[in-house]
């Protein structure tokens, strides 16, 4: 038969106390030599990880703020661009209206000048026609009555006749 634990002899009490004291001493030495620095290293590692997570979160928040600021600046840029375009359109419209007004004013002044010229030509033509009619009348009258009237007398007679026609 195979010897078992219950079959073996019990350990003497002195050995048992020595083993317990040696085990406890070993545990105290391990705590100071191995577990203390190991715990400190693990705590330092945990602190570094927490600090890295905090700085990553802060960097993420800063990036989000910067992105929001860039979006706002982009929107403001678009607004300014639309305002510039609107102002340019308004300026072009105003200039176009001013040019049209100037062109219309020039056309009106040219028309008035043409009307004045036409009136002047009409007046000159009437005056010339009166003179020609007066001269012709003097010639006809002198041939009819065989008498020479002065040209000034005939002209005054014709002017009076024409003035009478103008009143009618």
TrEMBL record:
Segments for region (Disordered): 62-89
Domain of life assignment: Bacteria
Protein's cellular compartments: Cell membrane; Endomembrane system
TM region positions: 12-30
Biased composition regions of type Basic and acidic residues, renumbered to the chain: 62-79
Keywords annotated in UniProt: ATP synthesis, Cell membrane, CF(0), Hydrogen ion transport, Ion transport, Membrane, Transmembrane, Transmembrane helix, Transport
Membrane topology designation: Single-pass membrane protein
InterPro entries found in the cross-reference section: ATP_synth_b/b'su_bac/chlpt, ATP_synth_F0_bsu_bac, ATP_synthase_B_chain
Subunit record text: F-type ATPases have 2 components, F(1) - the catalytic core - and F(0) - the membrane proton channel. F(1) has five subunits: alpha(3), beta(3), gamma(1), delta(1), epsilon(1). F(0) has three main subunits: a(1), b(2) and c(10-14). The alpha and beta chains form an alternating ring which encloses part of the gamma chain. F(1) is attached to F(0) by a central stalk formed by the gamma and epsilon chains, while a peripheral stalk is formed by the delta and b chains.
Function: Component of the F(0) channel, it forms part of the peripheral stalk, linking F(1) to F(0).
Family per similarity comment: Belongs to the ATPase B chain family.
Stated name of the protein: ATP synthase subunit b
Species this chain originates from: Fructobacillus evanidus
Gene transcribed to yield this protein: atpF
């Amino acid at each position: 038969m195979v010897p078992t634990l219950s079959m073996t002899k019990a350990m003497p009490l002195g050995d048992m106390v020595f083993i317990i004291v040696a085990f406890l001493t070993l545990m105290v030495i391990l705590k100071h030599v191995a577990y203390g620095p190991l715990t400190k290293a693990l705590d330092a590692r945990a602190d570094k990880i927490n600090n890295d997570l905090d700085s990553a979160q802060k960097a993420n928040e800063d990036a989000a703020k910067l992105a929001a600021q860039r979006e706002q600046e982009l929107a403001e840029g678009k607004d300014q661009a639309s305002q510039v375009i609107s102002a340019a359109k308004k300026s072009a419209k105003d200039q176009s209206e001013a040019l049209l007004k100037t062109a219309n004013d020039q056309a009106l002044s040219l028309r008035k000048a043409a009307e004045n010229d036409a009136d002047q030509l009409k007046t000159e033509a009437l005056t010339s026609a009166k003179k020609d009619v007066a001269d012709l009348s003097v010639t006809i009258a002198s041939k009819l009555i065989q008498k020479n009237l002065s040209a000034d007398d005939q002209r005054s007679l014709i002017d009076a006749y024409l003035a009478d026609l103008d009143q009618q």
